[in-house]
């Protein structure tokens, strides 16, 4: 028994911000950003909220799947940029789309979040607890990015993606692996509120994303090929049998490094980061939705999904579409 993706959806903010726009904000250049990252533009919220973007993506996924919101049993939202500490985004989305029967909650594994949420849905279905799930990844990272820091503000974008999954007897998710390395958590972090109560008042170090870009880069190029190989070994599938590698969209050079280590042609690594930047947990489901709507995903195709990011967290799964 497994789960099969039966519908996809995504939503991006209206405002597209180009590298040229960023040249007006920080000391950078379109050439530098494109050469070092592959990114040309990203979408930035000028009013869309994480809940509204994620709800739109979920509604599109339901429509694409031909399912009704009220039939969904589990609604998971992966995010690391909620507007509210409570209630969780998944409950706000549940209310917005009318998924009244679903158990709804959030999951934070940063850029691996969507993949970990998909694996969670798999485990529930495999255990016989639920028959279906709506799994989303959404971010409005623009509110936790320091717009004076050229090392990070050029990288990130806002958006949301979602999939509807259902129990299946054949195909679907063939296997997954997920790992965490909390000891290296400081290389990419964003603090929440400082401790402040009648007994203590500690100043906050920073409310923005802090990143050691080189460490993150090295981690991704080393661990992602290894975790992909691990899931391929688990499922008995060879690198050459994989039709598409749908990876977290962080940096074109990271994707090229991973392809090289796997000895796989780059044309099997679809990208949209040039247009949308790094959307953390939204990256994989948005790319999946774009591929689906372009008709590039055919029944029987073997896909590898792989996410990696803050935590540090990383993982991969194999899907027979
Ligand atoms: N424009 C122009 N110059 C810049 C910019 C910029 N936007 N940002 C940094 N620089 C400068 C630096 O100040 C430095 O100058 P110096 O040599 O005078 O000190 C120089 O460029 C080189 O800086 P590096 O940080 O060494 O540049 P690098 O080649 O490593 O590229 C980058 C930086 C793009 C951030 C790269 O390290 C990277 O992509 N790392 C991975 C980051 C990532 O993907 N993070 C997210 C993944 S996990 C997740 O998705 C949450």
If you had to describe this structure to a student in words, what would you say it looks like?
- The structure is a single chain.
- The chain has 321 residues and is α+β, with helices and mostly antiparallel strands.
- The chain folds into two domains: 2-170, Peroxisomal Thiolase, Chain A, domain 1 (3-Layer(aba) Sandwich), CATH 3.40.47; 174-320, 3-Layer(aba) Sandwich (Peroxisomal Thiolase, Chain A, domain 1).
- It has ten helices and 15 strands.
- It has helices at residues 19-23, 30-37, 50-65, 89-97, 113-126, 150-153, 213-235, 252-262, 273-276, 283-293, and strands at 2-11, 15-18, 41-44, 74-78, 103-107, 132-139, 159-168, 172-180, 188-189, 196-197, 200-201, 210-211, 244-247, 302-309, 313-320.
- The strands form five sheets. A five-stranded mixed sheet has the order 1-7-6-4-5, with helices on both faces. The chain has a four-stranded mixed sheet with strand order 8-15-14-13, sandwiched between helices. Strands 2-3 form a two-stranded antiparallel ribbon.
- Helix 3 (50-65) crosses helix 4 and helix 7 packs parallel to helix 8 (252-262).
- The longest helix is centred in the last third of the chain and has 23 residues, at 213-235.
- It is globular and about 50 Å long.
- The two termini are 15 Å apart.
- The structure holds acetyl coenzyme *A.
- Residues 28, 32-33, 36-37, 110-111, 150-151, 154-155, 188, 211, 213-214, 216-217, 250-251, 278, 280, 309-310 line the site of acetyl coenzyme *A.
